[in-house]
Hints:
single chain; mainly alpha; 3 helices; globular
Amino acid sequence: MPQVSLYNDEKIEILLVELSAVLEKHCTLTDFALIVLGNMVTYVIRIRVVLDMRSTLVKSFTDAMYASVPFPDIY
C-alpha cells in the first residue's frame, strides 16, 4: 500500500531528477549507487533523528521501500 506523503510530488520529483543527474554524471553503476544512497539514508537518520525514534523510522522507511518495489509473483 502506498504511503501518504507530507510533501508534494513536484518537490519530490525535482530532488529525484537532481540526485539522478549526479549519479549519471559520475557514471554510477547500480550497486555503487545503492551503496551511496544507503549511506546517505544512514547519515540523515543518524544526524537528524533522535535516538529513540530511529527504530520506528527505519522500520517505516524499509516497509515503504519494500512496498514500492514490484516483485514477480512467487506462485
